[in-house]
Design goal:
The protein is α/β, with parallel strands linked by helices. It has 2 domains: about 290 residues, Mur-like, catalytic domain (UDP-N-acetylmuramoyl-L-alanine:D-glutamate ligase, 3-Layer(aba) Sandwich), CATH 3.40.1190; about 130 residues, Mur ligase, C-terminal domain (Protein-Tyrosine Phosphatase, Chain A), CATH 3.90.190. The chain has 17 helices and 16 strands. Helix 15 links the parallel strand 14 and strand 15. Helix 4 packs across helix 11. The radius of gyration is 21 Å and the shape is globular. The two termini are about 25 Å apart.
Length: about 425
């Protein structure tokens, strides 16, 4: 039993991060179905909207939740991972629930799973961390009386614990090479994994994609009878520009003109917002109030700007090539003076290509680590960076707090990006977040 919101930060760590057997992994959804049955199937108590993709699915989910909320619906939002507090994963359209609700729901989950055990044929007898996160989110939204919830996949789609819902709509954001050891080593293979959250008769809305990914989604939609809309086919004259206040975006849907002032910057955010608005338009819950809420939407670690010691500091979670490019371009638009990058990446990412689009924009690069949660190799990153850009000032500082203090020395602006886990371990950043 827990008695405080602080204890909530630790209870999910009691469970294993994965089931650890590739053969058993194919039965992952049966594991989740049994867990949800034990809990009374809380996921059936509200309408759901399912998002998947390599990048942008969190912000697109948040935009969609804001649009639902603006239409008068009480909307839960389930995201992963979290940057500063586990509560970021489970919100009321990006706003925290009361501490009492978080605590009471956690205790209900712990009590109902106290004697719960999965059969050995399905792997570990105990649910995994992500299975428990997902079940907890569904219970929280049910207990809060949510009418709707936007659910972001964790990894992939086909075998993701969230793929146990029957959504009102599916949103697919850009596909890039990621988690190749699990999802496959080509865009086509990864797109297939993501496409399996699509449902027959359920509308699917797809962002700008490579030809390879688009063909996969078209084939799946035809095979199962799912209506499908692609951003580039439906959204006309999409333009955006980064300024000190965020991202200015304009576009047209079915003859209606939209002009937005987004709190979250980068051209990628403009496309994510446009995709969410397209879904709301077709599903008939688009309102002026929803658009106002969308414009104000902000998430931790998504081009999050703050002033520290008189310097502009931006925290972002660019961990794919295209997102790194968009982040670098947006940072260039607002940075003043010398530009310093603090960078880390977990192992298994397309680091060489990310470095090639990110590093040239900076005067100085400090390579740090992702902390204890995920493995990283700062020496390897520094070596690749030095080989690509031999004249660039590149150094290694594994202690994240010292890396940040080093970046603040002298004049200029600072970008902290790469791994989602980089900024979360910096004391000064956490102080700015009030944590």
């Amino acid at each position: 039993m827990i008695r405080s919101a602080e204890e909530l930060e630790t209870i999910f760590d009691r469970y294993s991060p994965s089931i650890g057997n590739e053969a058993i992994r194919e039965n992952r959804l049966e594991r989740m179905e049994r867990l949800l049955e034990r809990l009374g199937n809380p996921e059936r108590c509200f309408r759901t909207y399912h998002t998947a993709g390599s990048k942008g699915k969190g912000s697109t989910s948040a935009y969609l939740a804001s649009l639902l909320s603006g239409s008068g619906r009480k909307t839960g939002l389930y995201l992963s991972p979290h940057m500063y507090t586990v509560r970021e994963r489970f919100t009321l359209s990006a706003l925290f629930f009361s501490d009492d609700l978080y605590i009471d729901t956690a205790n209900e989950l712990l009590e109902k799973t106290r004697s719960f055990s999965l059969p050995s044929s399905l792997g570990s007898p105990s649910p995994t961390t992500f299975e428990m996160y997902t079940a907890y989110g569904y219970m929280l939204f049910r207990n809060a009386g949510c009418t709707d919830a936007v659910i972001e996949t964790g990894l992939g789609g086909r075998l993701d614990a969230t793929n146990t819902i029957t959504p009102e709509a599916v949103i697919l954001t850009p596909i890039e090479l990621e988690h190749t050891a699990i999802l496959g080593d080509t865009i086509e293979k990864i797109a297939v994994e993501k496409s399996k959250i699509m449902r027959g008769g359920v509308p699917t809305f797809v962002s700008r994609e490579s030809d390879a990914a688009r063909k996969v989604f078209e084939r799946e939609a035809e095979a199962i009878g799912a209506p499908i809309s692609f951003l580039e086919d439906r959204i006309m004259d999409l333009r955006s520009e980064t300024d000190e206040n965020g991202e200015k975006a304009s576009f047209t849907i079915d003859g209606r003109n939209f002009s937005l002032s987004l709190s979250m910057a980068t051209s990628a955010m403009a496309e994510n917002a446009a995709l969410a608005i397209l879904a709301a338009h077709d599903l008939r819950f688009l309102t002026d109030e929803g658009i106002r809420k969308l414009e104000k939407t902000a998430l931790p670690g998504r081009f999050e700007k703050m002033m520290i010691d008189g310097k502009t500091v931006v925290v972002d979670s660019a961990h794919t090539v295209n997102s790194a490019r968009a982040t670098a371009e947006a940072f260039d638009a607002i940075a003043k003076g010398r530009k310093t990058l603090i960078y880390s990446s977990v192992e298994g990412k397309d680091i060489g290509h990310m470095i090639s689009v990110l590093f040239p924009s900076f005067d100085r690069v400090i390579i740090s680590t992702t902390g204890d949660y995920r493995r990283s190799d700062p020496e390897m990153i520094a070596r690749i960076g030095s080989e690509l850009f031999p004249h660039l000032d590149i150094s290694i500082e594994k202690d994240r707090d010292r890396a940040f203090e080093k970046a603040l020395e002298g004049d200029g602006s600072v970008l902290i990006t790469g791994s989602f886990y980089l900024a979360s371990g910096m004391r000064r950043i956490r102080e700015m977040e009030g944590l």
